[in-house]
Description:
By secondary structure, the protein is an all-alpha fold. It has helices spanning about 20-40, 45-55, 60-75, 80-90, 95-110, 115-125, 130-140, 145-160, 165-175, 180-195, 200-210, 215-225, 230-245, 250-260, 265-280, 285-294.
Amino acid sequence: MQRIAILLFLTFFVACKGTHTDEEMTDSVKLASLDAALERRPKDASLLGARAQVLLDLGRIKEASYDIARALQEEPDNVDFLLLKANICFAGGNVSDSYGALERAQQLSPDNTEVQLKMGEIMFYSRDYDRALQCLTKVTTKEPNNRTALVMKGFVYKEQGDTAKAVQILRLVTDKFPDYALAYEELGVLYASVLNPLAVEYLTTALQLEPSNTNAIYALALYHQDIGQVDEAEALYRRILDINPASADALNNLGYLQHAYHHNDALAAEYYNRALAVDPNHQQAIQNINDIKQ
């Protein structure tokens, strides 16, 4: 069996892919323009901040860090720059400096809900759920319809084991924002965890809104797998591979189904090896292939 990866809308970081999308090409054009402008005005804080954002979008974290540091040298009390620094530090795995930038931003702008939202996200990722809720509640008190804060509160309640509150707030989000796929997805994951058939309804809705959402497809596949609907699960795992051939989780689970239900250990081993070719540290694939060898 394979875990469900929690989808946490990291607004901080857009990973740089191996192939260039139209958006990445647009960012490349922006970057060239900013490079040219900064040659003429190398200390222009607004240009440095803009280039830092583009570099972050392209996943070039070290360069983005350098530019935002230079921008803050010119304008140390710029709250937008501090927020961008927090995003960049977080994307680079430097949670401490990210939080430090947010604390400074909060001192300068105590009522800034974006600062509170970012702090709530960092507290969530740091597993400090009580402080995360404090920050997120400040946001929803001021902005009751802030859907990001509402969904994040749902995640917090889930991690605290309060499924009822998590479901309640996520249903509120789907009522207010019927086109917000993430809320449907997470409701589906919650119901799937207790094998409740409502999981199918919510995950199907999420996929109607975002047909290529592999997280929702995976959750739906795992639900079918857990209740013994093997054909449905296999079809969904293959659907994931059509979208992302390098999905180690989907490959591993196809191997598990071959081993556990079809008793085809040769094909199961092939899937496990393909999963390990993608992710050599995939623990379940390692365990599963060792189980076959024993």
